[in-house]
Amino acid sequence: MEIQLLEYERSYQKLLAHRQDVYEYALLEHLTNKSAHFDVELTQDKASLLFCGIIDDEIIASCRITELAYLDFDFQQRVMSLCPELDIDKTFMISRLCISAAHQGRQRYKQLLVHVCRWAKINHHNEYYLAKCRVALAPLYRAFGCVVIEGSRYYDELGGADYLLLLGSIQQTYDTFTKEKY
């Protein structure tokens, strides 16, 4: 799998089609193009860096990183109330980590996140990342060094499930993956 930053003009529609397939497979209807929330997703994409894993010119994996300053102010306030010591100027939000059903597995997540962490270490001053996940996926994030932010569990009306916020260190996640502990 080759991983690269998305070229908007050339590949954005491919990315949207990839996400659509993943979300329909995972029954995440609120993230598909049939949802009223879809425009919010498009707006956040424009304020983010989008990484894609590609095999044979097909996007099979993707991940979005966004500076916290570009996220909803209410979300920023929630993060600051839960983590008052966190420097939001040194923190990304990692979201829309999607792997196509036919390519799912820890190895693909690892490849994508190693690339994103390596890119962040070389090209950016950020040290941390936040991630939002369904409760059932928290062990996956813990396996590569994330901690659940205490008091962060909430019910997402759009997703119809309980979610958690997690905090990770870019360096620690990179080290975990590159030292093959994962």
TrEMBL record:
Taxonomic placement: Bacteria, Pseudomonadati, Pseudomonadota, Gammaproteobacteria, Alteromonadales
Organism: Shewanella denitrificans (strain OS217 / ATCC BAA-1090 / DSM 15013)
InterPro entries from the UniProt entry: Acyl_CoA_acyltransferase
Protein known as: N-acetyltransferase domain-containing protein
Origin: domain of life: Bacteria
Gene3D superfamilies to which the protein is assigned, alphabetical: 3.40.630.30
